[in-house]
Amino acid sequence: MVMEEGCQTPRSPEAKVGMQVEDLWDIQEPQLSPTEKLNACFENIPVSDFPPAPSNQVIEIKSDATLAEAVKLLSQHKILGAPVVDVDAPEDASWIDRYIGIVEFAGIVVWILHQTVIFLFFMLFLSRCSKQFHTLQSEKMEGTAAFDFDSLITGAENILSPALAAAVNGVSSPRFRSMHPESPTATCGNFFETLTSSDLYKNTTVRDISGSFRWAPFLALQKSNSFLTMLLLLSKYKMKSVPVVDLGEYKIANIITQSAVIHMLEECAGLHWFESWGSKKLFELGLPLMKPNNVIQVAEDEPVLQAFKLMRQNGVGGIPVVESGGRRAIGNISIRDIQFLLIAPEIYRDYRSITAKNFLTSVRKYQGEHEKNSLFLSDMVTCRRNNSLKEVIMKLDSKKIHRIYVVDDMGNLEGVITLRDIISKLVHEPRGYFGDFFDGVLPLPANSRV
């Protein structure tokens, strides 16, 4: 029930939003389908009515903060990403000039790994060229002017950007030379411990990696935009969170996350519009959308970096870990878990290879020692096809997660359901709805009609 017993006041701000939808639902044209009704309802509610995020989740990171400082800040506030403020922007700058993007755990790790490989190959190339050149010089006739190749190497380091220079100084030693992210050495127990102690990690600033941010420069909603716009950005357009800007204050007024939307839906249980949709079984709604053979997954004995690589390549926020040679799911790794490669690299020291399975084992132990009441990674949240959508939403909200795995009676993986799938059954994108909203901001999905 949304109402407390004997009281006509919503039990939460989220429930108040649900009651707005209920009031609008009752006045919609009877010939409209449930989805068309909900589209109209959410289109008439501004995002300014969405409850504000907890203050500890609305943080900003200064552009001159180091990657190490950014990781620490994100970890302390238990968030995946935060907007970056340009410290050189004037005080009266508009919001679009004030922010340079959103930096995330995943972006930091991917950038570090890519730069490490580039720098190591670059330095190895120069080193080999120098050796060959000195050999040739020794064969020249006495009195012939010599070319100082060592000066060329020094000069190359001097003209590199601050980020490149930090990497050359910090990760050009022999101990790094075999640490390609896809090699066995890159998944050994001391790889990330060595990496997080390097100058590359300590000296590179958030501003230095701004070109790798997903949004350029920033994708945000205004307070007057609708709930429907917000829901479509989170679902079809795969945003993890949606900033809402205050044009008058030139700053972010709220950040709407996937978890917040799941909680809003959970708080709407009992309302007519919600029950007409949420009481249906998953199989009745055509969920899960993806066939078992198409579910992206990683075997327990594969390197954990393969899991994060698959997430990036396929644009997904998490993948299941399955038994080698089978389909039985034993755990889940999500994009948020990438933080443990940076904030606790010492827990893998005793491993010759950081596989998906021992990643789960190590992080479970770490969380048990440092984070009480936390959801262990290996505690995979599952459901069955005959569960109702309401039951799924309740589970997602109680565990504060974004995806749930559908399994059969034997625990074999049958599919995955995310918030995006849920929203796709709640609302749809009208033809031409976004117009030129995305022009120059981000690539559109292949099946977009806008």
TrEMBL record:
Keywords: CBS domain, Membrane, Repeat, Transmembrane, Transmembrane helix. GO terms for molecular function: protein kinase regulator activity. InterPro entries: AMPK_gamma/SDS23_families, CBS_dom, CBS_dom_sf. Residues 54-118, 290-351, 376-434 form the CBS domain. The chain crosses the membrane at residues 105-126. Gene3D superfamilies: CBS-domain. The keyword Transmembrane helix applies. It comes from the Eukaryota. The keyword Cell membrane does not apply. PANTHER family: AMP-ACTIVATED PROTEIN KINASE, GAMMA REGULATORY SUBUNIT, CBS DOMAIN-CONTAINING PROTEIN. This is SNF1-related protein kinase regulatory subunit gamma-1.
